[in-house]
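Annotated sample (chain length 368).
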Amino acid sequence: MTTQHLRNFSPGAEPRTPRPLLRPPAEVDRPGRVPVDHADSRRSRELRAEITGWTSYDPRLAADVLSGLSQPRKSIPSTWLYDQRGSQLFEAITELPEYYATRSEIALLRNCAAEIAEEIGPDATMIEIGSGSSRKTPLLLGAMQRPYAYVPVDISGAFLMHSAALLRGRFPDVRIMPVVGDFKRPVQLPHALRFAPARGRRIVFFPGSTIGNLTPEEAVQCLERLGDLCGPNGLIVLGVDQNHNEETLLPAYNDAAGVTAAFNLNLLERINRELGGSFDVGAFRHEARYDSDKRRIEMHLVSVREQTAEVLRRPFAFAQGETIHTENSYKYDREAIESMAARAKMRRLAGWVEERGRFAVHLLEPHT
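Output written by the structure step:
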């Protein structure tokens, strides 16, 4: 971990970015500006301006935040933790001594990449979901025989483009085609993939136990979408944290250096920046919990006092001790993966488990 990831964060401090940093409606439609959402009609923008005075925000973020904070048990989807700052903080988390998952998966991939590549065959296209820094990508891509293309998919556009540029230098013969997208929604692949060799398979690489952020039902739906991406002849390489030991799980999500706390609290700073929020970030604290019945870690932001915060001019009241549920991380074992895969019309072709049994890599293939 480097200190640069923490230099702007101190627990209890006000966010340093002044707010709001939203552009007035007059700037939104000036020539050359790309609309935030092509599906968003002019009438919708006018209505937002009438209600809030601002138009230049992501309507999906606004909808999820406003809806989530309006529920009896407040929650915001974990997708929105990953702006550029959040992505940087998460990369710092993966380097922490408490966070075993990344080290375990990298060690496991070093041991099994050659076997996976042999199953994949030549001229394949690899699609990586939630690619982040693409740190694990070279382990698999480098083992593959004449890979045709690499398509990293991530919601953080700036972070994605930086990672793609670094990989182009390392793999000059591979067509690298980054796609900004949310894996919880259908992903639009580049049209250039139509020219890929017919015999080359499509491989979906889904590492990092990101599938654990989904409920079992959502995970099945996600696997169905990934099956559509790779096609009937494709494969899915799935990394899964299957640790159920609370003594090692809780420190992994509540590290001593406070990086995970900064990552979680950054969500409030993002809302302040992008949605004109008025959250006093210092009046919330990070909390990680383990639900042994559901076999999942939960991350929450806990209000340390009674308070009110506004988002797009809508007030939301918080009692002391009330939380915003920001993330789940389910710990799916082999039985759970096989069950969900079967429901998604897939089967487990092979698998590898690290020596402590905490992390697994599964190879799935579609079946009819």
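Annotation: Confidence is low (pLDDT under 50) at residues 1-40.
Annotation: The longest strand covers residues 284-291.
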